[in-house]
Amino acid sequence: MKYTPLYEKHKALGAKFMEFGGFDMPLQYTGIIDEHLTVRNKAGIFDVSHMGEIFIEGKDALEYCEYLTPNRVSNLLPGQSQYTFLLNERAGVIDDLIIYRISENEFMLCVNASNIEKDYDWCLTNKKGNVRITDRSPDMGMLSVQGPFAKEVMRKIFLSVEGLKRLNFSYTDFEHKHLMISRTGYTGEDGFECFIDKDTVVGLWNSIMEAGRPYGIKPIGLGARDTLRAEMGYPLYGMELNEDTTPYEANLGWVIKMDKQQFIGKSSLMKIMETGLTKKLEGIVMNGRSIPRHKNYVLFKDKIIGEVTTGTYSPSLSKGIAMAYIDNDVSSSEVGVDIRGILHTGSLIQLPFVKK
Q1: Sheet-wide strand order for 132-135
Q2: Which of 44, 178, 299, 331 is the most exposed place for a label (fewest CB within 10 A)?
Q3: Does residue 14 contact residue 35 with C-beta atoms inside 8 Å?
Q4: What is the pLDDT of residues 285-327, one digit of tens each?
Q5: For the whole model, what pTM was predicted?
Q6: Strands 140-146 and 191-197, sheet pairing
Q7: Which of 210, 77, 60 is nearest to 126 (CA)?
Q8: What distance in Å separates the CA atoms of residue 293 and residue 296, rounded to the nearest whole number?
Q9: Which residue, among 49, 65, 46, has the nearest Cα to 57 in the 3D structure?
């Protein structure tokens, strides 16, 4: 089991823990619903130091990143970032990530904790040109501040966040260490993600908590992180995304730039565009009080038409919700979900569940 630099801090705050991506991570502190609503209405701070940071540098770094990922990296100016993927040759998702353009010839991939080693190996295996690829994940800590008051909290410490736009980032100093602040997040709320040396992340946590006290900031665990992203219809690797699922099936085709000259997985995506999809990711809002769960079957007229990827309780809607891959030829808006052998009804909706 691995631990983030804030592990002792989480224990002192009374967190309940769970294993995630090989790390012992806080699941909740005061409770998932309370933490969820804190982020929706005030501000919350997340320890996301388990995430990975892979750096790509060199004179051919841009050309290599264009080949490695399906989004158009050349659109980025230094100080900007974009959501994208690592795809295999079948166009299945190896990982979803955010790529940051630090300078003309330097990029950072922020990748999922469970995929760090796999992603790093994939980058090395597909290395092209004059580039250096470095996994700096063990040396870095990462915090996320999310919620309607996130900006107010952060600008009490860093004035530089005032003009920072969505998917942009900047650098400042904290305790004599370089700090990268990005206006990104995984909750649907306004927010910032901070990348800093692992030895300084505890001090940064303490400063943010102190600055956020007037705004009701609270530490937030993985439980609320999951319900927040589910309400927004954001995918989670291992649930909605895997190496047998393409971005088109996950409603993420907007990321793909097919007019790029070449990238890994492009030929398979071209074939999929010709043949069409057999399944698509849909949202389900339950009609009663039932709560769907991962792997529950979705049915229409006694026929299995899909399977739940994410099922949970939505604190914002006070209803059970699910994301599920549904057969592409289903036209009904009403479906059933098999929960422990009992069929519960729900309505198909277009994601997200909560409009922001």
Answers
A1: 80-87, 93-103, 106-111, 52-57, 132-135
A2: 331
A3: no
A4: 999 999 999 999 999 999 999 999 999 999 999 999 999 999 9
A5: 0.97
A6: antiparallel
A7: 60
A8: 6
A9: 65
